[in-house]
Each structure stands twice: as C-alpha cells, then as structure tokens.
Write a structure and sequence with these properties.
Chain lengths: ~140, ~180, ~110
C-alpha cells in the first residue's frame, strides 16, 4: 500500500517537471522571437546607413526631415531618450536604440551638420521625425 | 516487469522529446539569424553618390570648375593637391589602424574616345583598386566599384572625357563576412 | 511476454529515429531557405523609387545630363558627331539609367536651339 502511494507521487512529479520544462522552453523561444522582432540591430543598421547616405548627398543650406517612427517606439521601450538616438560626430553617424548598444556608419561628405533634433507635435511629444540642417564647413 | 520496461521507455521518450525540442530551437535561432542577421549592403549607392559628388564638383551646369584650369587652359596641379577640400570630401577615419574605406580616381583625357590621360586625380586608399578587376560571381566580400564617364566642354571649346572610379570597401558593415 | 515487449520497444525507437531524421531534414531545408530569402539585402540605385513618389522626384542621371549638355553646347561639327557616336555606344552598353534617346530629345528641345 505504501509502495503504491510512492509510485503515484513519482509519476506526478515527473509529469510536472516535464510540463515545466516544456513551458520554460516555449517561454525562452517566444522571448527570443519577440526580441528579434524588435529589430534593434536591424533598425540601427538601416537608420545609420540611411542618414549617412543622406549626409553624403547633402549640400550646404539644405534641410532634411527623416522619418524615424519605427525607431521611436523601440527607443522608448528600451529607455533611450529619442533626442539621444542620433549622434553625428566627426565623419560618423551613430544610432543608439538600446542601452549600451549602437551602430555607426561613416560618411565622406565634408559638410557641417549644423543641427539635428527630433521634431515634436503640438502636444510637445516626439512625432518620430528627425530634422537635419547643413552648412558649409569653414 | 512489464511496467518497469514501460517506465524506462517513457523516460527514454521524454529525453528524446527534449532532444527534439533543442534541435528545433537551434534551428529556429539559425533561421531567424539567417533571415534578420544580414545587414543592408548600400555600398553601390554610396559609391554612386561619391562619383556624383566628384562629377558635380568638376562640371556643374555646363561650367567647368574655375579652379581646374589655369588662364592658359592647362590643368592646375593645385586642384589635384586640394581636390578633397575643393570638392568637400573627407575620408578621415577614427582609430590609428583603421584603413580608409574609400578610393576615388578621376582621369581626364583630351577629346572623345581618346584614352591617353592628360590629367589624373587619386584620393583615398589605393589598395582597394585591385578589387575592381576581380571578376567573381559573389563579390560581396570585395570592395564595390562604380565606373562613370562623361564629356565636358571647357570655356575654350576643348572637349574632355572624364572617367570617374569610385570604390567603397566597408565589407564588415555591409556583409555578414 | 518478454519478446513481445522488446519488439514494441524496437518499433518505437525506430519511429523516433525516423521522425528525428525527418525533423532534421525539414529544419535544414528551412535554414537554407531563410538564408536565401534573407541574404544580404543589396540596395541598388533604384532604391529611390521605393521610398519616394514618382510625382515628387524625377529620375535623373547626372552623367548623361552632363554629357548631353556638352553635346548640345558643342554645336554642329565633327566633335558633336564624335560625341553622338560615343554616347550611342555608351547607351548601347547600358551605361545610363535614363532612356538615352528620350533624354537627348528633351535636351535638344530645351537647350539645342539656343
């Protein structure tokens, strides 16, 4: 009688462990897929190249607006202030969409990126557009 | 006896089950990485913009850059010396051992269809130039080259053929290699 | 009794082995497929059409326009004939992103009579 009870207990524990491991596996897989869907590295890659190419094509006096609405959501989610997403330093554009992660791309146009800042809508919230102005380097 | 064998079989199946789960998980990770992990290759566009910028600097709106020729109508060597500044280009890189990922070559020849160079400008990393002569089907891991050609007419009426070669390497930023 | 049991076990193991092989084959097939589909995305010069409206942006070829400008400004003569031949050759070689004849016609209308 005692033996029987022990066996039943074993079966229950085994099944619970089996189920828990399955759930753990599925959770890890879903987290991985969601992170990939976030596309931090894909977005950083695309935006750094897009902005570098825009700077390459720019001429002094030009003004450009870049649609970065996809980046706005990701930056907010990862706790990166939207006004710190784009950094133009030297001959490099750096895009940061996650804490401690960023991607840079070099441009060759020797132009002054006089100003670059995110635009805000009437309510003072970022609308996902970045504004760039260019002037001649002296 | 029979029950024991059944139990052993169950355990074997559950181990097998997790082995399959691991295989499937590794497969999915590889698939997602293969699909999303590749960067955009923008080097052809970038080299095109570089060639455009150089061409516009030399000949724009039917006017040859006034700094290119002397009053006697000969090429000015200081145009070559200050080409980067005149044409608003900057190939400088960060880091001491980083190689310049650009190369630009402009050749002028007198007349149409004449391939004897009268004047040439070379800027950037000339080590990238040989990559343009390699003909392979998959040239992603080589520098990307763009060859452009146009004709320009000087104020004295002389026609020059201008050939521009723009090369961009940046292999690691634009490929998975 | 024992014999029957071991037969059942062999059958079950065989099923699992076959199933594993099938799963592996399918996974390898999908990995290959996704790497083909998601291979490095080359952005070519036609990218402008995909991000801009054709109503807002006119396609352009700086090099063809520069050469045609030289062509129309050189006036009738041997040099214009040489230029014409050279440009025809370049157009035949697919060097221009615009239709050569149409652009040339437009250039002649815009600048040729001046």
């Amino acid at each position: 009688m005692i033996k029987k009870r022990q066996k039943r207990g074993e079966i229950l524990v085994e099944n619970i462990i089996f189920l828990l491991l399955n759930v753990l596996f599925l959770t890890i897989l879903i987290i991985f897929l969601i992170n990939q869907g976030n596309g931090v590295s894909t977005l950083e890659d695309a935006y750094s190249k897009e902005i570098a190419l825009l700077i390459d094509s720019a001429r002094p006096g030009m003004q450009m607006t870049v649609n970065m609405q996809s980046a706005l959501g990701v930056a907010n989610k990862n706790g990166v202030p939207f006004d710190q997403v784009v950094l133009v330093k030297g001959q490099y554009v750096t895009i940061t969409l996650d804490q401690g992660k960023s991607k840079s791309y070099q441009f060759f146009n020797n132009i002054n990126v006089t100003g670059y800042y995110p635009e805000k809508d009437n309510s003072g919230k970022y609308n996902g557009f970045y504004f760039f102005t260019f002037s001649k380097k002296t | 006896m029979r029950r024991q064998i059944g139990k052993k079989g169950d355990k074997l199946i559950s181990v097998y089950w997790f082995a399959i789960l691991v295989i499937v998980a590794v497969g999915i990770v590889l698939m997602v990485n293969a699909f999303y992990g590749n960067p955009y290759d923008v080097r052809q566009v970038e080299a095109g913009i570089l060639a455009d910028n150089a061409a516009n600097c030399i000949y724009y709106g039917g006017q040859v850059n006034p700094l290119l020729f002397s009053t006697e109508g000969v090429f000015r060597p200081d145009f070559r010396d200050n080409f980067m500044k005149i044409c608003s280009l900057n190939f400088s890189v960060e880091g001491e051992f980083t190689q310049v990922p650009y190369y630009l070559e402009v050749n002028f020849s007198n007349g149409v269809g004449n391939f004897a160079n009268s004047f040439g400008i070379m800027e950037g990393n000339s080590n990238l130039r040989p990559d343009c002569n390699i003909n392979v089907a998959n040239n992603q891991n080589l520098a990307q080259c763009i060859n452009k050609e146009f004709f320009m007419k000087t104020s004295s009426g002389t026609i020059y053929t201008v050939k521009i070669l723009a090369v961009v390497s940046k292999v690691s930023e634009n490929t998975n290699g | 009794m024992d014999k029957k049991n071991s037969k059942g076990q062999v059958g079950e193991t065989l099923t699992w082995i076959v199933a594993t092989i099938i799963i592996l084959v399918i996974i390898i097939f999908f990995i290959f497929g996704s790497s083909l589909l998601g291979g490095t995305k080359s952005v070519t010069t036609s990218f402008r059409q995909s991000i801009t409206s054709s109503q807002k942006q006119e396609p352009t070829d700086f090099f063809l326009q520069k050469s045609l400008f030289t062509y129309v400004s050189s006036g009738p003569g041997s040099s214009q004939l040489q230029l014409d031949n050279a440009l025809e050759k370049m157009a035949a070689g697919g060097n221009f992103s615009l239709d050569y004849n149409a652009t040339k016609k437009q250039f002649m209308l815009d600048y040729g009579l001046r």
